[in-house]
Amino acid sequence: MKGRISLLGLTIVALLLTVCLGASAQRRTDPLTNDEINQLRDTAVEPELRMKLYVEFARARLVALEQMRADPKKAHERGFETHRMLEDFLAIYDELDDNLENFEKRRDDLRKALQFVIAGDTEFQAKLRALKDAAAAKPDEVREYEVLLSDVIETVDSGADDHRKLLAEQIEFYKKKKKTPKS
Question: Is 92 exposed, middle or buried (0-12, 13-18, 19+ CB in 10 A)?
């Protein structure tokens, strides 16, 4: 009886360790550095500055991705690193969208901020398509990130459309607001 209890106890402990280790392995770190987080904190209520920062941070991730892919020393881990870096880019891009949505709900003037975002969208689309074209030449490597790359391209394309529509809405709203006499 005692042997069964200790065997059962060991089995439960082993199972718990496996679950805990698996959960911690799946947990991703924040793609932003502490310095970037502090910069964002300083611009919490300034849409133009905050969006500029998000575009810069997303751009930096794509530049780092391009540099890593050009480094012959990284050839053996290129697929894995590309996947990881695309995840980081996507997390930052999603955060940019979430912030724009919050500013829009507050009825902030986003016209200048959206100009930076739309310019960033155009740049990101070109870089991501170039990555997709380059990946076609390396089928073994691309298997590690092709689905994610397609998702990222789709997200940026959709975001770009949404950002352009929002800018048009903002321009129209502020045009009408300017024409309306104040009471």
Answer: buried
CA distance 172 to 60: 33
Judge whether 85 and 68 are in contact, CB under 8 Å.
yes
Domain range annotation of the chain: 1-30, 32-179
What is residue 134's predicted lDDT score, i.e. its pLDDT?
86
Find the mean pLDDT for residues 6-30.
54
Assess whether pLDDT exceeds 80 at residue 5.
no
User: In the structure, what pLDDT confidence band is assigned to residue 159 with cuts at 50, 70 and 90?
Assistant: very high
H helices of 27-145, where? 34-42, 47-70, 78-105, 111-135, 139-142
Distance separating alpha carbons of residues 74 and 97, to the nearest angstrom: 32
Whether 153 and 129 have beta carbons less than 8 Å apart is answered as: yes
pTM of this prediction? Answer: 0.81
